[in-house]
Amino acid sequence: VAICFLNSYFDSRHEDRVAELAQELFPDAFITTSASIFPQFREFERFTTTCINAFVGPKVKRYIQNLSRSLKAQAVRGELHIMRSNGGVATADVAGEQPVTLLLSGLAAGVLGGAAAGAQSQRDRLITFDMGGTSTDIGIVTERGFAEATARDTWIAGYPVMVPMIDVHTIGAGGGSIAYVDDGGAFRVGPRSAGAEPGPVCYDKGGTEVTVTDANVVLNRLDPEHFLGGEMTIYPDQAFAAVQALADRVGLDLYETAAGILTIVNNNMANAIRSRTIQKGQDPRQFALVAQGGAGPLHAAEVARSLGIPEVIVPRYPGITSAMGLLTTDLKHDLIQNEFTLSTDPHLDKLNADLQALENQVIEQLRADGFTPGQMTLQRFADCRYVGQGYELRAIVPNGELDEAALQSVWQQFHDLHTAEYGHAFPENPVELVTLRVTGTGPMPKLSGLPVPAEGNVKAAWLKTAVTYFRVNGQLEKYSTNFFERDRLPIGGEIEGPAVIFQKDSTVLLPPHSHTTVEANGNLRIRLATEPQSEQRETLEVAV
Question: What sign does the dihedral 141-142-143-149 (CA atoms) show?
């Protein structure tokens, strides 16, 4: 049962009473009120969010309850917490009542994992680049924290969802993305994917259409003896035959076709990054790219180079960075209060009273979760817009009692954010503070350091040397390339590109004119040099 009243964001008493009556009539029903999910003034988005919560609620709640019982039956002592889309976790009870806050939580965990890896490398301006089999997820992290999605950004099954979410942009580009010639004769890659079944042609599971993975096999960037740590067999001959058939159709040779597939998919991913950085007033050259997912480290360096990003960070276990992100977060609650006050006539008494009320509610929720006041962290925000605008930007509200000076800092933040987002601001125009927000966090145990060989040398990790194809200065060339085993690379080890580094959950590609160092935390830090314009050599010998 979904209960949505037009003005319940302002006063929820009527919704609450109807919920009581519905519970009496239907004792076993899963009942959701719009004010309990997110009391926001946009009624359409609030209604659709409430309906989605009601729709998924019964199954999700039963699932969580069954999971909790099973864990207790197996004598698991830890308390169950569930990841939420806002980058925090919730108790099982809260998650079961508000399952809409769990949508896209896996993607949020990926951004958290990437941010944690970047922090280990002392980088706070990051682009998380999580490329898997069917899609690539892109998140932005700055010194202000995670970018948060808005109601205009987040749509599920064709409907807007208005709950706090880390902003993650997803495109149909992955290792299983299919390369094809469309009806107009254009050479394309994705968004259609071969998925896990039947998968790429080289998997020999019935796939017949060329994928990005097949192209990497043809260019000798994936090795049949070291795929999935040697636990999965792939069939290069089948990939070669499939790519050759596509090459005959597009009129290119075998290797140009394979390289063309990678060029297209890399450009698609680079364009997606541009849409989240350049088009929002951020310069990607000031960021580091965090390569995640099974396919991310295989493509990250070439994507970064096309954007002028100077550095790529590859976490210790990139294929499971999203899962590891679950172990880097805290318990988090978000509460909001609509305000509608103008910069020309702010109601300071009401603002302070409402902020205090929100903080008290958050403190009570965190106290119920078992945290003491000394463990809690509260953050305050204000959603602002110019009068007449339809969407808001979020400014940080200073702690303590608000006065004119504190509010002036909020208005100035908004002007600065507007300039960054849209390229201009209107400092003389009145600003409307639409919504106050308070986010409360309680600390959770964190993932400890991961083991890395402290001693040894790079030569001990060397596996072989073979010819691999790279496009340099627009020309596809053959390079003598060294292959390494990551688990045997010691702290401080350095490798010059071109090189390929194998590990069970991913493969790292170092193109020509790149250099990587194994950091003490286990990350690989890849630095990308500018390609020399004069190089025309067919091969490049790399000494170990």
Answer: negative
Residue 331, φ and ψ in degrees, nearest 5: -75, 135
* CB of 362 closer than 8 Å to CB of 369: no
CA–centroid distance for 500 within its chain? 25
The larger pLDDT score, comparing residue 430 to residue 154, is at 430
pLDDT at 537 > cutoff 60? no
- The residue type found at 397 is V
- DSSP readout, 61-81? HHHHHHHHHHHHHTT--SPPE
* Lowest mean per-residue pLDDT among 25-29, 325-329, 533-537: 533-537
Confirm if 18 and 66 have CB atoms less than 8 A apart. Answer: no
C-alpha angle 228/230/232, rounded to 5°? 60
DSSP string, 4-64: --TTTTT--HHHHHHHHHHHHH-TT---EEHHHH---S-HHHHHHHHHHHHHHHHHHHHHH
> Which distant-in-sequence residues (6+ apart) come within 8 Å of 262 by Cβ?
212, 215, 216, 219, 299, 302
**Tens digit of pLDDT for each residue in 352-365?**
999 999 999 999 99
* 3-state SS, one letter per residue, for 93-129: HHHHHCHHHHCCHHHHHHHHHHHHHHHHCCCCCEEEE
Q: CA-to-CA distance for 316 and 319, rounded, in angstroms?
A: 9
Residue 310: asked if its preceding bond is cis (omega within 30°), the reply is no
What are the b/e assignments for 270-286, b being 16+ CB within 10 Å? bebbeebbeeeebebee
**Which pLDDT does position 149 carry in this prediction?**
62
